[in-house]
Design brief:
- α2 packs parallel to α8 and α3 packs antiparallel against α4.
- This protein folds into three domains: 231 residues, Arp2/3 complex 21 kDa subunit ARPC3, CATH 1.10.1760; 149 residues, Beta-Lactamase (2-Layer Sandwich), CATH 3.30.450.40; 167 residues, Reverse transcriptase/Diguanylate cyclase domain (Alpha-Beta Plaits), CATH 3.30.70.
- The chain is an alpha+beta fold.
- The chain has 18 helices and 15 strands.
- The termini are far apart.
- The longest helix is centred in the middle third of the chain and has 42 residues.
- The protein is elongated and about 120 Å long.
- It has a six-stranded antiparallel sheet, sandwiched between helices. It has a five-stranded mixed sheet with strand order 10-11-9-14-15, sandwiched between helices. Strands 1-2 form a two-stranded antiparallel ribbon.
- One of its GO terms (molecular function) is diguanylate cyclase activity.
């Protein structure tokens, strides 16, 4: 919320709140007929009950409606307003409203004041009177029921308008807070009416007879809601765990974790560190600012540096409710100036710390013990998911890559080609694609003259040159032995032939350096290597992806190898010949 809106709230409260109280006092001329002890007893009971609220979303719900209902029916509007305002102040103290949220105090005081006035207006308009009820006639009961309904409706309308004013967003009127408000009102208002009737008969004794059950109801509802809330969090945590462990890519795992934890908890900043145990350092691998306002350069921490480094060093997670608490123990330059609440937990795998998760909220007292436990559970899920993803990536790389050159192998190339052609057919379009297949000339002589290790050196250096040559968007693979293929996406035959000629010169113009040769000298030896290259294209030369490789292979052998080597040939010219 902007400072301007907060200032507006304080100004409205300073004008409206004392003015209405002064006006109501003079108009209603309240009288308690010496029952100060009774009024104080009601006030104490309301304050005790206000100490057991539930928080739905960001809306505190407490159970004083029934008691204030009884106070209103007997003592009238002004006394009910005063006791309700005192209870609201107790509620604010219980919630430990911080400096940034101090505007909530005048908001709640004014809102409950207006709710009391609206409910009383309906009550008096329908002929209701305060004091002892004489009969249970329709004329007597209608104002009472209407008052109860009016305060429920007024509460929700004012809450809805306030949320829209404070957030600047349109919100759904029928929210969870409405449901809980209705439920608690259904439970507490009848008890409040019984309190009113018993008070007429027993006096102050009734406050204590009914007060204890009222407090018990408040505690039971609060615990019930807290249990449901924790169960909801646990269910969501389990769902997040399944999402994480179902992913087979480390980046996707981290993306899902960051998104899901931000939806589950109030998180403004998320830090995920990777731990290198050999050097005892932490490297920031993911940082997310919920508002996308805080750029963060690469961060490397040592053990015991900041909160995350301390968690790594001590091997135990921590959580803090505000900045003052964690600044007393550790200084952390990685956290932003507006950081308040913090949870930081280690990510463990095989009894070793492999990472650190640190989440931060700008608000004080955002996280409780069970939030910390949920993040610990999620950290375990994350550790398993990352391990699975890395294992999958490693296995996938091994199955798709040539171990010597680290280029893709034929298996990957065939799968990739099938995917490209299937995608093209699905889109109903015909695209130009070309294949370059090259074979090193007289490569056996290299192995025979300089040794197989030197031959491997040539293959590795050639792979490096090919990758550098093709760049992004194209695929280079080792076809087998000293044969390599390059798939040029969206390239016509003429373009592919031009690229093949450039590639030929990349190979032939610069000698290959051999350091692991079997010659008598230990000095590096340079050898000149050439390649015969064949080119085939779709749709000019074939209809299926398998034909593309076969035709490029034929162009290479018939058009280049047999005609003197160190040259480029196209399938078209070969077939015509």
């Amino acid at each position: 919320m902007t400072q301007q809106k907060k200032l507006t709230i304080w100004l409205v409260w300073l004008i409206v709140w004392p003015t209405l109280l002064f006006y109501l006092y003079n108009v209603l001329e309240p009288s308690i007929d010496g029952k100060w002890f009774d009024v104080i007893s009601f006030a104490i009971l309301m304050c005790i009950v206000a100490f057991f609220p539930i928080i739905v979303g960001e809306t505190p719900i407490f159970f004083i409606q029934g008691i204030s209902f009884a106070v209103f029916l007997y003592f009238g509007l002004f006394v009910e307003i005063v006791l309700t305002q005192i209870a609201v102040i107790v509620l604010m103290l219980k919630l430990r409203t911080g400096k940034e949220d101090l505007h909530r105090v005048p908001v709640n005081l004014t809102m409950f004041l207006l709710i009391s006035i609206m409910g009383a207006a309906i009550f008096y308009l329908l002929g209701g009177t305060n004091g002892e009820i004489e009969t249970f006639s329709f004329e007597q009961v209608l104002p009472i029921i209407s008052y109860a309904l009016a305060i429920i409706v007024a509460n929700q309308i004012l809450l809805h308008l306030l949320r829209m004013f404070m957030t600047g967003k349109t919100e759904n009127f029928f929210s969870r807070s409405l449901l809980w408000d209705v439920i608690t009102s259904i439970v507490t208002l009848p008890v409040g009416f019984v309190l009113y009737l018993l008070y007429i008969e027993l006096g102050a004794k009734a406050i204590y007879f009914v007060g204890i059950p009222f407090i018990i109801i408040s505690v039971v509802i609060m615990n019930y809601y807290a249990t449901n809330k924790i169960n909801h969090y646990l269910q969501k945590t389990s769902e997040i765990g399944h999402k994480l462990t179902g992913q087979l890519n480390v980046k996707e795992v981290l993306d899902i974790f960051v998104n899901e934890i931000s939806e589950l908890l109030e998180v403004d900043y998320t830090y995920i560190f990777d731990v290198t145990n050999s050097t005892e350092t932490l490297t920031l691998i993911r940082f997310v600012d919920a508002d996308n306002e805080t750029p963060l350069e690469s961060v490397t921490l040592k053990k015991f540096d900041g909160i995350s480094g301390t968690v790594y060093g001590e091997g135990e997670g921590v959580y803090y409710s505000n900045r003052i608490k964690w600044e007393k123990k550790v200084q952390d330059s990685t956290l932003t100036d507006d950081a308040e609440s913090v949870i930081s937990v280690p990510i463990r795998r095989n009894e070793k710390i492999v990472g650190i998760i640190t989440i931060v909220s700008k608000n004080k007292r955002t996280y409780e013990k069970y939030h910390y436990m949920l993040v610990e559970i999620l950290a375990n899920y994350l550790a398993v998911a990352i391990e699975n993803a890395r294992h999958y990536d490693s296995t996938k790389r091994k199955s798709e890559r040539c171990p010597l050159t680290k280029l893709y192998n034929l298996r990957y190339l065939e799968t990739y080609l099938a995917t490209v052609f299937e995608d093209m057919k699905a889109k109903g379009v015909q695209e130009n694609h070309s294949m370059i297949l090259l074979d090193l000339d007289h490569f056996k002589k290299v192995n025979d003259s300089y040794g197989h290790e030197s031959g491997n050196e040539v293959l590795r250096e050639l792979a490096r040159r090919l990758e550098e040559f093709v760049g992004d968007g194209n695929v280079v693979a080792r076809y087998g032995g000293e044969e390599f293929v390059i798939f040029l996406k969206d390239k016509s035959k003429g373009e592919a032939q031009f690229e093949a000629e450039k590639l030929r010169r990349v190979i032939s113009d610069k000698p290959f350096t051999l350091t692991q040769h079997i010659m008598q000298t230990s000095d590096p030896i340079e050898v000149k290597i050439t390649a015969s290259i064949g080119v085939a294209s779709f749709p000019d030369d074939c209809e299926e992806p398998s034909e593309l490789i076969r035709h490029a292979d034929r162009a290479m052998y018939v058009g280049a190898k047999r005609r003197g080597r160190n040259r480029v040939a196209t399938y078209e010219k070969v077939s015509e010949a």
